[in-house]
Design the sequence.
């Protein structure tokens, strides 16, 4: 009886997972399928196989979307944000994990509040401040905004990793003559690197896909990100749907490839950080 119940449970699990995979992958497959069609064919039969494969949709999308510049801007913005968040977040999390803070509940409340607070509350003051400082269309300056947005979550996640490291390792290194900075860089960081990789992946994906801040602070043609350039594909009166799908594929492909390549590390990092602090 138990064997039959186990088989039934396993079958239901596979059915649910199969349905979830279909719901997740179907839009991507439809996007790839329509990216190889002419615009009238996309409108006429979006689910059909292309009558003629139109590879030129990709070349036109790359050229018209100015993706050579947009991808470079997105890459610079993403890398800078990851460096700022992982650098400042790891140091802050290490201090919060090792120092006894009487008002830790207050700090936790602050981090949770800043994580859940909508960016729209600060958008206008930020814009006027950046405009006064001449930082509009500055990719490096915008990375500081992203750092402020993603740091609270990163600090809370990385703190759990530092809490999981035995204090004896740190004490032994200090007894051997290491400085606190050497303990942090040579002992702690190599141990908590799965958490740092997880933070880097989450921050990178969110930075690459972010639209509101990018379209507000990066308005110039030479400073637009890939997401903003893709948004401009849609015309006011007519839209080339084949080219639009090709542009969407170009923008999404790096994100999907990166996640597939690092998904095992990502899952390990998320489960490894589930230590109660």
Sequence:
């Amino acid at each position: 009886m138990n064997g039959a119940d186990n088989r039934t449970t396993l079958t239901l699990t596979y059915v649910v997972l199969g349905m979830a995979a279909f719901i997740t992958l179907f839009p991507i497959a439809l996007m790839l399928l329509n990216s190889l069609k002419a615009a009238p064919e996309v409108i006429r039969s979006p689910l059909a196989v292309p009558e003629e494969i139109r590879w030129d949709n990709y070349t036109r999308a790359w050229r018209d979307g100015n993706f050579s510049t947009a991808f470079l801007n997105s890459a610079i913005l993403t890398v800078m944000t990851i460096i700022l968040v992982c650098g400042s977040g790891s140091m802050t999390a290490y201090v919060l994990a090792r120092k006894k803070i009487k008002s830790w509940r207050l700090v936790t409340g602050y981090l949770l509040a800043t994580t859940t607070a909508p960016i729209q509350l600060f958008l206008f003051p930020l814009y006027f401040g950046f405009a006064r400082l001449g930082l509009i269309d500055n990719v490096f300056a915008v990375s500081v905004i992203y750092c402020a947005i993603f740091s609270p979550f990163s600090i809370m996640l990385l703190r759990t990793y530092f809490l999981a490291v035995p204090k004896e390792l740190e004490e032994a290194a200090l007894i051997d003559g290491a400085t606190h900075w050497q303990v942090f860089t040579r002992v702690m960081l190599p141990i908590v690197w799965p958490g740092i990789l997880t933070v880097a992946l989450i921050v990178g994906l969110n930075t690459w896909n972010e639209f509101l801040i990018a379209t507000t602070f990066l308005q110039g043609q030479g400073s637009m990100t890939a997401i903003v350039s893709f948004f401009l594909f849609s015309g006011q009166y007519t839209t080339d749907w084949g080219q639009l799908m090709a542009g969407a594929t170009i923008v999404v492909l790096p994100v999907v490839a990166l996640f597939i390549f690092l998904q095992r590390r990502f899952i390990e990092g998320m489960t490894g950080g589930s230590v109660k602090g």
About this structure: The chain is about 80% helix and 0% strand.
